[in-house]
């Protein structure tokens, strides 16, 4: 234990895990813990966070509203890149950690803290995502990762520790200690317990933002999303801030059973894990944005984006949001985003998304050229030369 009292900024949710970590930091380091909470749209009770932190003796509690920054500067760039990790995961947890880490280091510098700390487990990806952000913005600030150094090795150990120190233990809907849950305005993830067995079906009660397609609305919902310079800005002709827009789409999509994914993913550190994700509004935006690009961008640009997407998604998943490699790919992705303007009308019905119409002033799509009616805008005589040229490539 350090002889001199130090300051540690903890990424604090107010929940079981980070409350235990807060107490553990106080016990094992001669420290003043500063509780930092980033409001990025997760389900949270600010009064409860403050109450729990104060109960544990915390004097400085910082809660920042980052919802608009999170959606505009982190989620929207991913939507423009159509980022999907291993073909399924929309990267909801992955994209939240860089922003939290950046702001946590800012707070650490403000309070002249010796170290920062997080609640990510020693087997997960989040420890990498947090700490790469810490190293990027505050390389001289120490990092304390409790899960890698303490003697608490399991969920059971954590619960025993919580009981010993009178830390409240929440219950899930079946009255047992909770699943491991992460949520923000973009998504909700659920891991652990029965989900660790890939042969078991995810119980319906774990879903928080979506109804099952079977129990979804009996009538479809119709939504029109407006895009300007590659980003959504309106829903049903009403202009909304980034956070309000995503929040509205989450509600609409959730009621229609859209946005559920159950997957086994390859973690950065080399093990497989199963997670159940809900990304209702994000799923709509991904489909709508791609539809918008289909009538506004040329083939070469779209195909180049498709080529870089897997690497782009992997960089985000692995925690390299602030890397030169990600910045370079983002430039490729955003090369012609200013051309992506217009609106997409979609139908949502029992887990399905159907594109109904695409409206744009772009000239990338030509009705005259594509029409089966005879016209002079497309020279069919050139097609034979085109095919012969392609045929020669078969032998190269």
Helix content: 25-40%
Q: Would you give the CATH topology of the largest domain?
A: Argininosuccinate synthetase, chain A, domain 2
The strand order across the widest sheet is 3-2-1-4-5
Question: What is the CATH architecture assignment of the largest domain?
Answer: Alpha-Beta Complex
Query: Could you name the CATH homologous superfamily of the largest domain?
Result: Argininosuccinate synthetase, chain A, domain 2
Characterization of the model:
The protein is an alpha/beta fold and 396 residues long. The protein contains 13 helices and 14 strands. The protein has helices at residues 16-28, 46-55, 67-81, 92-110, 126-137, 146-149, 155-164, 242-255, 280-294, 299-317, 324-333, 367-370, 381-393; strands at 6-11, 31-39, 61-65, 115-117, 142-144, 180-183, 188-191, 221-228, 231-235, 238-239, 260-266, 272-278, 342-349, 352-359. The strands form 3 sheets. A 5-stranded parallel β-sheet has the order 3-2-1-4-5, sandwiched between helices. Strands 10-9-8-13-14 form a 5-stranded antiparallel β-sheet, with helices on one face. A 4-stranded antiparallel β-sheet has the order 6-7-12-11, with no helix packed on it. A hairpin with a 2-residue loop joins strand 13 and strand 14 (352-359). The longest helix is centred in the first third of the chain and has 19 residues, at 92-110.
